[in-house]
């Protein structure tokens, strides 16, 4: 059920703008900040089941219109930020579709129970010996 950023590349749009922060003249001239937009609601590459999973698990990154937005401005180049945004999308898709196994409950082993009772008896004996001797 896995999906990757390269499979949905045809439905992704990128928008660039100028980054804030340090960089001197470079910041004022170069549009290195990259914003990835993918309309999950209108996507034809995913099934309805996958769409529900994505809308539930990635709700904090999805707008009211059903558009997934990922922004990067850490690199000084547009290409570096574009690659980072695609990596983030891959990680998000991988984590969203990861199936968590349900934990099987097991019995407490007999040896563990016996050791616990033995420790309790020793502690009780030590405390009993602390009492007054008459």
Overview of the structural elements:
- This protein has 134 residues and is an alpha+beta fold.
- Helices cover 40% and strands 14% of the residues.
- It is built from 4 helices and 3 strands, in the order βαβαβαα.
- It has helices at residues 25-29, 48-57, 78-96, 110-129; strands at residues 12-17, 33-39, 67-72.
- The protein has a 3-stranded antiparallel β-sheet, covered by helices on one side.
- The longest helix is centred in the last third of the chain and has 20 residues, at 110-129.
- It is elongated, with a radius of gyration of 28 Å.
- 13% of the residues are buried.
- The mean pLDDT is 85.
> Residue share in helices?
40-55%
Query: What would you call the structural class?
Result: alpha+beta
In terms of quaternary structure, the protein is single chain
Number of helices, counting only DSSP H or I runs of 4 residues or more: 4
Could you state the order of secondary-structure elements as H and E? EHEHEHH
Radius of gyration: 28 Å
Strand segment tally:
3
Low-pLDDT runs of 5+ residues are none
Amino-to-carboxy terminus distance: 76 Å
Average pLDDT score: 85
What's the shape?
A: elongated
């Amino acid at each position: 059920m896995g999906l990757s950023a390269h499979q949905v590349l045809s439905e992704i749009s990128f928008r660039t703008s100028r980054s804030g922060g340090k960089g001197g003249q470079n910041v004022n001239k170069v549009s290195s900040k990259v914003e990835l937009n993918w309309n999950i609601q209108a996507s034809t590459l995913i099934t309805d089941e996958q769409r529900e999973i994505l809308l539930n698990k990635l709700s904090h990154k999805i707008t009211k219109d059903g558009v997934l937005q990922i922004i990067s401005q850490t690199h000084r180049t547009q290409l570096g930020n574009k690659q980072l945004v695609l990596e983030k999308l891959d990680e998000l898709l991988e984590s969203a579709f990861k199936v968590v196994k349900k934990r099987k409950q097991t019995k407490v082993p007999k040896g563990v129970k016996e050791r616990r009772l033995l420790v309790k008896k020793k502690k009780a004996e030590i405390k009993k010996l602390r009492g007054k001797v008459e």
